[in-house]
Each structure stands twice: as C-alpha cells, then as structure tokens.
C-alpha cells in the first residue's frame, strides 16, 4: 500500500477522523461491496465507526460473560505478533464498525417465513467477504503508518467452541461493538444500534491511541423494547426455529435451524442447492428494531 503525503497529513491532523473516513471510503468504492451478478447491487450502506479503549474493564469481564477463552485486546494483539502481553504497548484502542444492510435487502427478507431471501443470503455470504477485505485494509493502513494492528477474526487463533448454551468464539464482534458504544443487545441476542439490528460488525485492535466513543446505554439491553417494559415479541414471532422466547435466545435451536436451512431452501423456488444459502436473519427484519433504535422515540417522549 502506497500512502500519499496528503493522506499522511490528514492522519497526523486527526487520526480518528482519518480512520473513519477511510472505512467509509473503502465501503463506498470497494468492488467487493457490489454484487456483479445483480447489476453491481451495493451490499452495505455507509458504516458506523466507533472506538473502544483497550483498557476498558468490560474486555476482562467478557471472560466471565462469554467464556474464559475470550481474548482481551492486549491478548489478541500479542498473539497476532507472537509476543507476550508485556511486549505490547501498554495502551491500545479497538476500532469497531457496523455495516448496515440496505432497505431493499431488508424489504426482500420481510416477506420470508422459513428461509432468507436470496438477496439477504447473498449479503450474508458475499458481504462477509467484503468485511474481511475491510479488516485487512484497516490493518494494512495502520501498519503502514507505523502502528501495530490486527483483526482477531482474521487470525489463525480465532476459533469457535461449544458449551451447554451453544457456540461461542474467542472474539465476539457483537460484544466488541457493544464495548465501543454502538448499541445494546436484544431479546434475540442481536445488537441494536442506531441503524437497527440488521447489520454485520467488524473490528481491529491497534496500538494507535484513539478517543474512546461514549457509552450512552444505561444497560446492556436498554435499546430493546422488550427489556424496557414494552410488550414487544416481534422477534419471537419471526423466528421459524422457535429459538426465541421471553427467556431469551436458545442458541442451540437457532444453530441447528441454520444447519438445516439449506435443505429447507431447496424446497423453495429459486434456491438450486443448499450451498447457495447463508444465514437466516428473519428475526432482524419486520421487527421494530430492524433499521433503528426503537427506544429512541420513547426517550424523546419522556423529556
């Protein structure tokens, strides 16, 4: 990567603004953010970008909340460089972004009852390929600027394990996004951001010190209507696997359904084989939190 003199000057003037603009520009112009077989349809809308303090205690708390194997930013960066945590700079930052799903894609999924729409499935599959490229781009940009950087999900040490509650990973992009102040969790386990719950997350750990974004949520669930006392069960009704209830999200039922969804899709016109299906996402559309934080209107009324 060749970085121009102007770009370096912009970076030195305001690193946080530079990083945010680069992520947005890469998304706006990146060829992988297009579906060439559907008239270059744009996969993701403009990203939301926030930053977390690598020393935030929440990262250590994730070892209890998620699993003891969940990595802190220091552990993640140290493993990426095959160094001890002591050999890594004392202070780190985490760059977190949200890739919102466009209205047309969400609209195509609203009418589905059993399997995702083709457009939604393409977004889940091809869209994550773009997300991987974005992670690599941000890492390369930071290393060219002279900083340590790594995208934990792209590292060989990233892994998914299983326990009695279902699958979990040693680097949860949703939980990283929560730590960066992007939003809060929902009854369905998704992350409700200011652009809603229909999105994908990405992150990079770096030695570049960036200003931490404010955590405005009062609780880990304060953006979810169900948890703030509103009689909302939209995601419960949308789930074809019956994996969501008033008790929360049954990850095992959900994951089993996703494994079976390929077969179900072969029964639907337009899906030629199970390999053409990715994800589900029905609980992320035709719900109040699809494209917005639904509690925001409530907060305005109480002021």
Keywords, separated by commas or semicolons:
303 residues; alpha+beta; four-stranded antiparallel β-sheet; two-stranded antiparallel sheet
Describe the structure.
- By secondary structure, this protein is of the alpha+beta class.
- It has one domain.
- It has 10 helices and 12 strands.
- It has helices spanning 5-13, 15-29, 58-65, 73-80, 103-110, 118-144, 173-179, 234-238, 251-266, 295-302, and strands at 34-35, 41-42, 48-53, 93-100, 149-150, 160-163, 166-169, 183-185, 191-193, 199-206, 244-245, 248-249.
- Helix 1 (5-13) packs across helix 2 and helix 2 (15-29) crosses helix 6 (118-144).
In short:
The protein has 303 residues and is an alpha+beta fold.
**Largest sheet report:** 4 strands, antiparallel
Number of strands: 12
Strand order of the largest sheet: 3-4-10-5
The multimeric state of the shown protein is single chain
- Report the portion of residues in β strands: 15-25%
What average pLDDT do the residues reach?
A: 93
Overall outline: globular
The count of domains is 1
Count helical runs: 10
What is the C-alpha radius of gyration, as a whole number of Å? 19 Å
- Helix share bin: 25-40%
The run of helices and strands is: HHEEEHHEHHEEEHEEEHEEHH
The computed structural class is alpha+beta
- Extract low-pLDDT stretches: none
* Cα distance spanning the termini: 49 Å
Give the helices and strands, then pairings.
Blueprint lengths: L4 H9 L1 H15 L4 E2 L5 E2 L5 E6 L4 H8 L7 H8 L12 E8 L2 H8 L7 H27 L4 E2 L9 E4 L2 E4 L3 H7 L3 E3 L5 E3 L5 E8 L27 H5 L5 E2 L2 E2 L1 H16 L28 H8 L1
Antiparallel strand pairs: 1-2, 3-4, 4-10, 5-10, 6-7, 8-9, 11-12
Helix pairs in contact: 1-2, 2-6, 5-6
């Amino acid at each position: 990567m060749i970085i121009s003199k102007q770009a370096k000057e912009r970076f030195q003037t305001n690193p946080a603004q530079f990083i945010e603009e680069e992520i947005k520009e890469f998304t706006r112009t990146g060829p992988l953010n297009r579906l060439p077989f559907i008239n270059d349809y744009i996969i993701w809308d403009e990203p939301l970008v926030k930053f977390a303090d690598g020393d935030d205690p929440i990262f250590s708390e994730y070892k209890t909340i998620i699993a003891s194997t969940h990595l802190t930013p220091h552990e993640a960066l140290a493993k990426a460089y095959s160094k001890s945590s002591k050999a890594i700079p004392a202070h780190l930052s985490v760059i977190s972004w949200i890739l919102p799903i466009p209205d047309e894609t969400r609209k195509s999924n609203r009418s589905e009852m059993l399997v995702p729409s083709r457009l939604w499935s393409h977004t889940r599959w091809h869209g994550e390929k773009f997300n991987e490229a974005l992670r690599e781009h941000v890492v390369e940009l930071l290393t060219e600027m002279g900083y340590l950087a790594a995208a934990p999900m792209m590292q060989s040490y990233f892994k998914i394990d299983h326990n009695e509650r279902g699958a979990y990973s040693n680097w949860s992009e949703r939980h990283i996004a929560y730590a960066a102040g992007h939003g809060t969790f929902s009854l369905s386990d998704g992350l409700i951001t200011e652009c809603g719950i229909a999105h994908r997350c990405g992150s990079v750990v770096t030695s570049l010190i960036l200003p931490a974004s404010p955590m405005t949520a009062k609780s880990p669930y304060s953006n979810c209507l169900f948890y703030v006392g509103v009689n909302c069960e939209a995601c419960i009704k949308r789930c074809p696997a019956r994996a969501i209830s008033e008790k929360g999200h049954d990850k095992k039922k959900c994951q089993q359904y996703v494994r079976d969804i390929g077969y179900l899709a072969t029964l639907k016109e337009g899906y030629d084989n199970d390999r053409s299906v990715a994800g589900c996402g029905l609980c992320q559309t035709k719900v109040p939190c699809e494209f917005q934080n639904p509690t925001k209107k409530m907060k305005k009324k109480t002021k």
